[in-house]
Specification:
12 helices, 5-stranded mixed sheet, Alpha-Beta Plaits, alpha+beta, 3 domains, D-Maltodextrin-Binding Protein, domain 2, 7-stranded mixed sheet
Amino acid sequence: MENPEIATVRISLPSKGRLAEESIAFLDACGLSIYKPNPRQYQATIKDLPGVTVLFQRPSDIVTSVRDGSVDFGLSGLDVIEERKGDNGDVLVLHEALGFGACSLALAVPETWNEVYDLASLGQYAATLSRPLRIATKYPVLTGRFLDKQGISYTLISAEGTLETAPAIGYADMISDLVSSGQTLRDNRLRPLEDGVIQPSQAVLIANHATLKSNPQALAVVRQLLEFIEARLRAKDNLSIFANMRGESPEAIAARMFTQQTIGGLNGPTISPIVVRDGDPNWYDVHIIVHRNELFAAITELRAIGGSGVVVTPVTYIFEEEPPRYKAMLAALA
């Protein structure tokens, strides 16, 4: 039971669906595991963030809650955030690219509209109608703003259910909806316009602007959040490589490594002496960080300059001196 006398910081996560599962998995990978003993509960904790209460809401409600200050932080899709954040600056984006939940809000038309494939041809088609285009969407703000820039006459039809059936049923001509793989559109004989992407989206971390300015506890929490999130994102596509190498000195080995393309390390290799049984002083252990895509090239280059016994391990975190987005947040608050 939460003690009302103890101030808590609230962070809201998606309650259902793929984004909910990926959010929990992402925070777990960042070392911020969610503790939720009862799956039916809509409240949880994070062991490594004492004083933080986790709430579970619909993505759209998360944005509204952060905007009105009832929740301090939230994780939702950029599409929903841009649709519902308002124009008062109450919602501050802390991290705009968490790397999961990718999709796009896009315009899609029936496959039978053979002559309509981009915005220009859509405008031409709309001009032949005796009425505005009827577009079904759950994103009236973003869709309307986008179409206004194109000068297309339209009527937006609000819909809470499945949008893809709207053209077939006849209550809309086309739709504006989220697209990921595009399979659902194809199943309903729809196709996206070539240049009809309204808003690219992925998971985003947001905060209430006023809370960060007035609540030191929330400011401390966001620093830890961004520290671990940025360190994890920086590390996830990198690998740690250890290799044994013979050489006259660490400097001599480093000089050989610097002649190669991929084994220079982040700032340079770490080279340490190895104590071998026969007492040979010319054996060293080399440690470097390389991008996962460059693993084969790195091993080939290490072998080419005398490396052996190569060991490769994943990297959990790479911490820099200060999280760039934390510094950006402080600048925005100032």
